[in-house]
Specification:
This protein is an alpha+beta fold. It is 26% helix and 24% strand.
Length: 466
């Protein structure tokens, strides 16, 4: 239990998902650096237009530049307090036949981010010092304007907010005053994947909302740790049959209910191993996938012949998107289209995600996926994928409504901005950003008067076929 509580924060911050766009029949990706030696084909300057990134790759490592309408500046080295998406770096690349383009990946199995080779670093990069208050403001405003995908969905007139805020910003106004202006511009965005983190006058701050109703209520009452402990104790002592298994670095709990219903709860899409391997590395990705496969092979093998399986994502906080798709592959009888994703707001998908049945243990009988407004990010991607299967029913409450991988855009003064830039769309054209994915069967999962017992009641109703 202690491992679960101390390690959960890092895993909850994880949401790695590379952007698509490779040509047909792309070459197999290979390491940028192998045993510290740079692959010569990867050396040079590369630009990803949709993300506003320029990377310089050399024998001494990778330098990332933020190419914004307000100017181009180098990203400061990642600090220990920076979220994981600001720390992970590409490890693999796939050069295209023309050698002028390549696809880069964070981890094996990701889709690739398309980059175009440049002859040299553009002269605009590093040309201006943008770390003043007015410089930071103009970068912040232009980055949000260029990359944020959901102003219309969330009812925000960004141009008007920028116009109202600009006269309030002057050089020399100080960090705290600038923070307050930027915070006012984000007010009401209600997007948990958009956040501003930094230090102002020596004090750390984090500007983020969109946490749904359940988590703020829990934080204001019992606190999150006692609540999670109560949920796990209740499951193991009162809901599941004897012999349940809490495993994968305390991220997955599985067992049976009434000996005829299989049950598997997944807290995060990753964080399954804790052996000192750096998160975001290729070795870490391989170990995460292996750990996931081992648990699901054991659990689904034990569920063979049962009446149904409940996949509980009602407390899933996201993570590695490949794991989200792997969950769906464990319940598929044939290859299916799960969703599409658009990264450049042109209305056309950059990638169509198809999921093939897993080679490991599978369960293709009746499945119920349980969600709540805590379910977010990779948990929502798994839910969206599972809903496309004919044997799956969705129960519980609507998900959070924050799908996009956070686009990391560190600001020139060392503050850190993440924002939602990707549009995930169901095969029928539905987009569930902001609204969340509504269930087929509505059940209270974490009601205000019973946030622990209500979860048990929902599971028992599903297991009873109600």
């Amino acid at each position: 239990m202690q491992t679960f509580l101390t390690g959960l924060a890092a895993a909850l911050a994880l949401h790695t998902h590379a952007v698509a766009g490779t040509p047909e029949n792309p070459p197999a990706p290979r390491p940028i650096y192998s045993d510290g030696v740079l692959d010569a084909a990867a050396e040079g300057v590369w630009q990803a237009h949709a993300q506003g990134w320029i990377i310089e790759i050399g024998s001494d490592g990778i330098t990332r530049w933020q190419d914004t309408p307000a100017g181009c500046y180098a990203t400061a080295p990642a600090g220990p307090d920076m979220p994981l998406m600001g720390q992970v770096e590409y490890t693999l690349f796939a050069p295209y036949a023309d050698r002028s383009h390549a696809g880069f990946q964070y981890l094996p199995g990701d889709q690739t981010t398309p980059f175009e080779r440049l002859d040299a670093l553009p002269a605009r990069c590093g040309a201006n010092n943008l770390s003043s208050e007015t410089g930071v403001f103009e970068v912040f405003a232009s980055v949000m304007e260029r990359h944020y995908a959901f102003f219309d969905v969330r009812g925000i007139d960004w141009a008007a907010r920028v116009a109202d805020a600009r006269p309030q910003v002057q050089d020399g106004m100080g960090e705290a005053a600038l923070r307050d202006v930027l915070a006012s511009m984000l007010e009401g965005l209600s997007d948990s994947h958009t956040k501003l983190i930094g230090t102002a006058d020596g004090e750390r701050f984090r500007i983020q909302d969109g946490q749904g109703e359940t988590l703020p209520r829990i934080h204001a009452t019992s606190g999150e740790s006692p609540w999670l402990i109560g949920l796990i104790d209740q499951l193991q002592n009162d809901v599941l049959d004897p012999g349940s298994v809490f495993t994968a670095n305390d991220r997955i709990l599985w067992g049976t209910i009434g000996r005829r219903t299989g049950y598997i709860l997944v807290f995060t899409m990753g964080g399954f191993v804790d052996n000192g391997v750096p998160p975001g590395s290729a070795e870490w990705g391989a170990q995460e996938i292996a750990a996931f496969d081992a648990v699901f092979d054991e659990a689904l093998g034990a569920f063979s012949g049962m009446d149904r399986v409940i996949v509980d994502l009602s407390n899933n906080r996201g993570g590695y998107d490949k794991i989200a798709r792997m969950i769906a592959s464990r319940f598929a009888a044939e290859t299916f289209t799960a969703y599409t994703m658009d990264t450049d707001r042109d209305g056309e998908p950059d990638h169509v995600y198809e999921i093939a049945p897993s080679d490991g243990e599978r369960f293709t009988g009746p499945v119920t996926v349980l969600t709540s407004d805590v379910t977010v990010s990779g948990g929502e991607i798994a839910t969206l994928s599972l809903r496309q299967l004919p044997n799956v029913t969705h129960a519980g409450q609507a998900t959070r409504g924050s799908f996009s991988t956070p686009l990391a855009k560190p600001l020139p003064n060392g503050w850190y901005l993440e924002l939602s830039s990707e549009v995930f769309t169901a095969p029928d054209g539905a987009v569930f950003e902001e609204t969340g994915i509504p269930p087929d069967i509505t059940l209270p999962v974490y009601p205000p008067d019973a946030p622990v017992a209500g979860h048990a009641a929902a599971l028992q109703a599903i297991a009873a076929g109600e």
